Every structure is written in structure tokens, then in C-alpha cells.
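Q: Sequence in, structure out?
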Amino acid sequence: MATAIDPELLAEARRIQVRADRMVTDVMAGGYHSVFRGSGIEFDEVREFAEGDELRSVDWNVTARTGRPFVKKFVEERELTVLFLVDVSASMAFGTSPPGSGRRTVAATAALFVGCVAFAAARNNDKAGLVLFSDRIERYVPAKKGRKHVLRLIREACTPPRAGAGGDLDLALDYAGRVQRRRAIVFVVSDFLGAAVGPKLRLLAQRHDVIAVRIRDPFAAGLDAAGEVAALPAAGLLHLADPETGRTVLVDTASARVRRELALRWRAERQQVLDACRRAKVDLLDVPTTGSVADPLVRFFRMREQRGARR
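A: Exactly. Output:
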């Protein structure tokens, strides 16, 4: 028996679909194709040897049978598989502004990111799949091609975060390594709050092109308008709650010492994730909950292109 889809969830998925499709059309059309290439080359055909061909390409078996030199012809294997590992733990529901303010929740930004990249993959005739995780694997959608499949991925990515559930990143990384055997592009989409980024990330990156996508509300991340770590505003006594454990604490934001300590902790936590990605040789892409998701993606594509050109 089919499960009825929440009308609000469906409406949000449609809004994300339209926005993501427009972003891909306007600014992302060529970036994806130029950065992500096929996983290798595959055999195409055998043809007779021609002047300029390399001796190492000679097919000696066919040459021996025919008495004439033949060479193997190979073509780039262009088809790619993109796999999204999307965190749906309770902290992903965070959002500091009401609807219509231009600021999304972390979860809605994650779904928009999935839509943008999945549409770009569909335009290149690549496959895309999805793993939703919290403290367990919530759902796995195997990789397929086509716009219709992209719409399903967006709907699944719009699944409301699980209340009271933490995110087990190692579990998701291990699961991805088991279900995705062939080399793929793996986007790990999370707020990375409290995540212990360990050797599982490095192990997955040895077989796949892994990109960590950190999505943060600027307020939750302790950032100012320029994206730099800033002190918490002096707003007096605040009750702060951990959405995943339910634990609450009373924080005196009027205290300069408290604000300074929180800013230092935010900075250390951000640096910890960056250091873990560097050790694993994984790129870290920061995507805010305000503005266009495509803009940081385009900057990321340019960075990868320039890095590739220098090699």
C-alpha cells in the first residue's frame, strides 16, 4: 500500500525542483561536465593499423589471425554515478528565520543542493542515487538516470529530519562503500555538528571522489555576514537546547567571557572538520542557508578546474 505524501512536503519539493532546475540552467550548465569526468576508458573496436598509431596499441591476437596489423581503439567512459549521503538527523531542521525571509532551514538547503547537482548529472546522462542517514540508514535510493528520477531524489531529500536522532557519519560512509562498488562521485551532505570525522572518510575517498558538503545556518555556526567566526550577540540569558539529545543549558550571552569562549569553540569545531577532510584528501564545500546554492558550487567547480590544470 502506497504511503500518502504530505502536501506541504510535496509543495516544498516542487519549489526546490523549480529553483534547482533554474540554477542549473542559468549558471551551472558547463561546470559539472568540465570538472567531473568518466572513471576511465573502455574498449570500443579494432581497426587496421594506420600511420601514427602507437605500437603498444597493436592487438597482436587479431594481427596474428589476419596477417595484417590491427590496433585496439578505446573511448572515454563518460557515464558517471553520483551518490548523495544526506544527513537527516534532528540538527538539520535548524533555521533562524521565518518562511519568506530568504533564509532556508539546513535540511531545505541540503535538498536544494541535491536537486542542483542531480539535475546537472541528468543533463550529462549520468546516474544519481541517495542515502538518507541519521543514527541509522533511513533510506537508500539506487542510482538511476533521468529527470523523473531526480524529482524522486528531491522528494526523498525533503524528508523531515528525525526528532531526537543523532547522525552517525561513520555508519553512512561504511554503508556507501558497500552499496557503491564502482567508482563514483560521493557528496556527503551534513551540518557536521558533533560529527566525529574519522578514518572511514579516508577509506571511502580511496575508492571514490568524495566531497564533504557542510551546510550551516550562519547563526548556528557562529558566523558573521562575511562568513567569519563571530561572537554570539549579547542577548542576555538564553535557554539553548540540543535537538538530538533534548538537553538544555542556560547561557548568559551578556557575559563577554562566555561569548568569547563560544566563538573559540565554534572556530575550533570548524577547523577540526577542515583538518579531518585534509587528512582524508577530501574537498570541503561550505554552503550557507542564504542566497544561491549554485554560487558556491560554481566557485567549487572553478577551483577544481584550476587545480586540474596545474597538475
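The chain has two domains: 7-35+81-214+283-310, 40-77.
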